[in-house]
Design brief:
mainly beta; globular; two-stranded parallel sheet; 9-stranded antiparallel β-sheet; homodimer
Chain lengths: 181, 181
């Protein structure tokens, strides 16, 4: 859970990133920027800010904003409702992002797992994404990512999102945000 | 068909639009910008420039670049391979775009049908998209769009594209570009 003050500050910071990159969002989208702290109450290290453009039965599109070194923790998207699980593509728009998937682990990974949670990061094959670069994840494959020192803005193109179905390696994670008034 | 010279000039103009908007593409994407003249040889009035980011079995994402008053002619995406037809969302990133779908026709439409081809434009319900605004088309529904006086950059998020299956109202249209050497 995060406090209302942390939530408001993170939303504003996300807006600042988007306007720096020249991405225009509507007033309604701006008011609804999602701040995910994954229930860990350490938003600066484990967290993600999201603008959801659309999420229909078939197609989903979002902008992801990551503050410097902010991490989206390891998870996968299992099959849901007879579909083979979400297929997602991350396209870096600004900054730098380090994406980890299964495969040969990086000898000297650019990202560091958040302090005290290292055991919940199990895939270490590194994909570095700079502006204009993208990577498509196979459904139900483990992945996590971290922004570089400047933060990052990443477009996500995917099949339908069922965030509540995501399976995180860290059992303490809660995907649905809770804001404490 | 268009000449090599027209093709190269349109690609360069599309690159200029993207860099003005701050959208970064890779060298490979830049080299492969698609220039669609729809076989009519009047690219300034009927045409479209495209960067295809991905087109998998399930998800497709593109940037569309329209020069001032350039028109993507009326068409629909029929069912293909047992799927109900492409579902697509247009999100305006820059400029202004006038999208036409079936429904109550606009009394004073902002777009003009390309000269001599007015009879091939049959749906006139107007949706104006400015930066940050978007519209989702139902599969197999007729639509066409035209940029405003400044041109436009539009993101398209959709299910898989089968461009060669598109059905255009104008029987003279050929979707697959031909460049004359």
């Amino acid at each position: 859970m995060i406090t209302r003050e942390q939530f408001v500050a993170a939303q504003q910071k996300a807006r600042d990133y988007l306007s720096r990159v020249g991405i225009v969002i509507t007033p309604a989208e701006s008011a609804n920027i999602e701040v995910a702290d994954f229930g860990l109450n350490e938003l600066d290290s484990t967290g993600l800010e999201l603008v959801v453009y659309l999420n229909t039965e078939r197609v989903c599109s979002k902008e992801l904003i990551l503050f410097p070194r902010q991490t989206c923790p390891e998870h996968r998207h299992p099959p849901v409702a007879g579909e083979p699980g979400k297929e997602e593509t991350f396209r870096c728009r600004w900054g730098e992002v380090y994406l980890y998937v299964s495969g040969e682990p990086a000898l000297h990974p650019r990202a560091r797992a958040p302090h005290g949670r290292e055991h919940t990061y199990t895939v270490w094959h590194e994909v570095v994404l700079r502006p204009g670069e993208q990577f498509t994840l196979q459904p139900n494959s483990l992945h996590w990512f971290q922004a570089g020192d400047e933060g990052a803005v990443v477009s996500e193109f995917s099949t339908r999102s069922w965030d509540e179905a995501d399976i995180f390696t860290d059992p303490h994670i809660r995907r649905t945000p809770e804001v404490v008034e």
